[in-house]
Each structure stands twice: as C-alpha cells, then as structure tokens.
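Hi support team,

I submitted a single chain yesterday and got back a structure, but I'm not sure I'm reading the token output correctly. Could someone confirm the output below corresponds to the sequence I sent? I've pasted both exactly as they appear in my results page.

Thanks,
R.
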Amino acid sequence: MGRILAVCIGPGGIPKRTVSVTRVTESGLEGDAQRLLEFHGGIDRAVCLLSQKEVKDLGSDGVPLGEPGQFGENLRVEGLDFSSLRPGDQLAIGRAPRSSVSAGRILLEITDMRSPCVTLSSIDKRLPDLMLGRSGLLCKVLEPGEVAPGMAIELVE
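Hi R., thanks for writing in. Yes, this is the structure output for that exact sequence:
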C-alpha cells in the first residue's frame, strides 16, 4: 500500500502548487488546468501520478529537485511499484487516518504512461530524455471524491 505525499494543481504548465485538499472529478482535480489539451488532460488523462522513487532517482541523476508539482504531476505518491502497474489497473485512494477529509474512496483507472513533455526542459535540458519510462501515470476517474496528502493509495486486485 502506498500513500499520497502531495496534491498539486495549477493554471496550466509547470510548476503546479501543493494544496491541502481538493476534489477529484471526472475531468481532473478542481483548480487544475492543462494547456494544450490535445496533449494534456481530458477524461482519459484527468489525473497524473508521479512516484517519489522516480523523483529521488532523478535527483541522483543530477536533476535539481524542487517542491512537489515541479514536474506537473497532480499526485506525488510513495510506496507503489509503478514498474508493475499497467493500463487498465485500478487504484483506490482511501481516507487518511485522523483526516478531516470526507469519507469515501476515489477510484482511478490507469489509461497510459505519461510521455515526458518538452516543457520539462525548462527545469533541466536533459529531463525529457531522463524521464522516458519514469515520468508518471495518467488516469481516468471512475469514482470522484476529495483527496489530501496522507491518504492511502493501493492497487485494486
């Protein structure tokens, strides 16, 4: 089982900023927008997940690391093995212990691996190439709800 480290939204582009709670809807996180909708966003690409492990690996490759949202992700996640996840897999996000976030679960379905965007080269010229195969997962929302850091996330078997 993993957990949500950060929830990130923005007006489009990078970076996104962290928030303490927001609602996940069929079209994505409330307060979040995507530029160039033919490449970003849409119902099948509503939520972008990025693994904290991949971020740490990028740091080991010499990429300057900033705050969550730096890479345009909506949810920074730890504790899930992204290498074993595939399109069609479903992820459930549940209530965090001692959280004021309303009860219920969010259900996401992985639709694709995220392709690194050339916009990332504003952080480091090498990033689009360095992030190949480790730039995150794109998901559609099957069951909406509120999401906050600390919430559990797990593969639905």
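A quick pointer for reading it: Residues 2-155 form a domain with the M1 Pyruvate Kinase; Domain 3 fold (CATH 2.40.33.20). Let us know if anything else looks off.

Best,
Support desk
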